Amino acid sequence: MFVKNKANNVAYIDGANLYNGMSSLGWKLDYKRFRVWLTEKYGVKQAYIFLGMMPKYKDLYTSLQEDGFTLIFKEVVYDKNGKAKGNCDADLVVKAMQDAFENSFDKAVLVTSDGDYASLVKFLLVKDKFNVVISSALQDRCSILLKRTGASIVYVNDKCSHLEYTG
């Protein structure tokens, strides 16, 4: 018999890191399945994706919202070569810290492979507010800084058969 997960966990997702990681793995993530998996496996009630806002991706944004994600946008700036930059790391950290201080979740799930989040992971571990890192990179490409935190790390590539977009 299936027992519904009663946890009140929150996922904080570095959207660019997830997208780039999946691109490097060579398969497409089914975001709808991913959202269900986060809920069923990790008790995620709220899933935030931090993204740079670019009008050309409005259909993607709509789809992500329909799949149950809450989008948090960062204004995109362009470098001298015209390359878009919408680094959301600080916004994600601030949101997670704010939510932790307000005690608005039981445990955090962090979706990234970026070592810049190691301090956040360490803080949440000390506060007993951390569940798992979900890495979109291969094990040898996930940041050593995240690995050194001692946090549990799950690799999306190991879930390909369940989470790959086949439509």
Description of the structure:
With 167 residues, the chain is an alpha/beta fold. The protein has a single domain (9-163), classed as 3-Layer(aba) Sandwich (Rossmann fold), CATH 3.40.50.1010. 37% of the residues lie in helices and 23% in strands. It contains seven helices and eight strands. The protein has helices at residues 15-25, 31-42, 58-66, 89-101, 118-126, 144-147, 160-163; strands spanning 9-14, 44-53, 70-75, 77-78, 84-85, 108-111, 130-135, 153-155. The strands form two sheets. A six-stranded parallel beta sheet has the order 3-2-1-6-7-8, sandwiched between helices. Strands 4-5 form a two-stranded antiparallel ribbon. Strand 6 (108-111), helix 5 (118-126) and strand 7 (130-135) form a beta-alpha-beta unit. The longest helix is centred in the middle third of the chain and has 13 residues, at 89-101. The radius of gyration is 15 Å and the shape is globular. The model has no long low-confidence stretch (mean pLDDT 94).
